[in-house]
Write a structure and sequence with these properties.
Blueprint: E1 4-9, E2 12-17, H1 28-43, E3 48-53, H2 78-95, E4 100-104, E5 108-109, H3 111-117, E6 121-125, E7 129-131, H4 145-164, E8 167-169, H5 170-176, E9 181-183, H6 188-200, H7 204-217, H8 222-236, H9 240-251
Parallel strand pairs: 2-3, 3-4, 4-6, 5-7, 6-9
Antiparallel strand pairs: 1-2, 7-8
Helix pairs in contact: 1-2, 7-8
């Protein structure tokens, strides 16, 4: 693959956007390669992903120097690009049956913010920051950034980030509730991979259900959520992993989950 690198250790696959010369700017090819790599990893038994960037940036957003698919002298159809590449990938991340940990090795800007926050847990470098500076080029946040940020920090902070386009340092992002983990720069990838390994060794069916259940809860009322919790519990209560957990509890040992 030309624009990403892939490495697998145990049941954890690390996907790295490898375009450091452009600060890991996004192109349609990046999304194509990420999608193919995820599909191949899942087929091979991966139970957790780590998403990171190469070099000093996590992701600088869309590659504005790549022409955006427009012919000379013509305005690009940004909506078509989003429909064809950005939105399908963000939907894929949301629907994955396994967790995603973001190793935010550096700043995230534009759609890179969306990519970072799409992870279930974000591990950010102390030097990192978030920048939704779309307004500075006459555009609106995309790739789900509006939803991801507003759902995490609320209307006031989301509007401030989007309208002013100011940088939000990692420590402030943590204090605001946008992310939960900030570590020394040198420790970001190791911390993310350790979290991914822990989740990969857990009860995969429950982990996948939790991802979906929390997403569902953000858009539904209490009664609907209670119903989904009941349905998930009914299904998981019949799983081999739950039976193993009960057996391990009785034997006073750690359970060995197989994702079944």
């Amino acid at each position: 693959m030309a624009e990403i690198t892939v490495s697998t250790q145990g049941a954890v696959t690390t996907l790295t956007i490898a375009r450091p010369a452009t600060l890991n700017a996004l192109t349609p090819q990046v999304f194509t390669e990420l999608t193919a790599a995820m599909d191949a990893a899942l087929a091979a038994g991966t139970r957790a992903f780590v998403l990171t960037g190469e070099g000093r940036f996590f992701c600088s957003g869309a590659d504005l120097g790549a022409g955006l698919g427009a012919a000379a002298g013509e305005a690009p159809d940004l909506g078509a690009i989003i429909d064809a590449h950005y939105n399908p990938f963000l939907r894929k991340l949301a629907a994955l049956p396994v967790p995603v940990i973001t190793a935010m090795n550096g700043p995230a800007a534009g759609a890179g913010v969306s990519l970072a926050l799409a992870g279930d847990v974000v591990v950010a470098a102390r030097s990192a920051y978030f920048s939704l500076a779309f307004v500075n080029i006459g555009l609106v946040p995309d790739a789900g950034a509006t939803w991801l940020v507003a759902r995490s920090v609320g209307r006031a902070r989301a509007l401030e980030m989007c309208l002013l386009g100011e940088k939000l340092p990692a420590e402030e992002a943590k204090a605001a509730g946008l992310i939960t983990r900030v570590v020394d720069d040198a420790d970001v990838l190791a911390e993310a991979q350790a979290l991914a390994a822990k989740l990969a060794a857990g009860p995969a069916l429950a982990v996948g259900a939790i991802r979906g259940q929390v997403a569902f809860a953000l858009d539904h009322d209490l009664d609907a959520v209670l119903g989904l919790e009941r349905d998930n519990q009914r299904h998981l209560g019949r799983s081999a992993d739950f039976a193993e957990a009960i057996a391990a509890f009785g034997a006073k040992r750690k359970p060995i989950f197989r994702g079944e």
